[in-house]
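Problem 3 from the worked examples.
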Amino acid sequence: MSGHNGGPPLEQTPEEAGAESWSGWVWRRAHKKAWKTPPPEIALRRLAWAEELGMSYKAYTLEILERGKYL
């Protein structure tokens, strides 16, 4: 499928939900790694920048993860 990013399906049948797929496992692992809590000094700096921009910490972190650069 053109434009598909290879992620796991959003909706699963009951049979699929019990079966662990490789792509599902890889995506869950990557998600956990991306949202891993950073060291305290980095988290505090991101929180300060997010508050300065009027954003939540989670929204600011998501922007960093999506764009690969700081705002």
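Problem 4, a separate protein:
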Amino acid sequence: MTTPLFLLRCVQLGISLSELELLTIGLVNDMFCERERDDEEWSILADQDAMDKF
């Protein structure tokens, strides 16, 4: 990942430079990936019983 791409992702997530001091590159990447999946439609959602079995 290039520096401009990283900074673009920070802007897209609304992360300021002062907040960026508290975050790692990996955390920013994870936040971006999760945001991209927010609109994903999931056919099956786990309930508490499924989590307990897990």
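Solution to problem 4. The chain has four helices and no strands. The mean pLDDT is 91.
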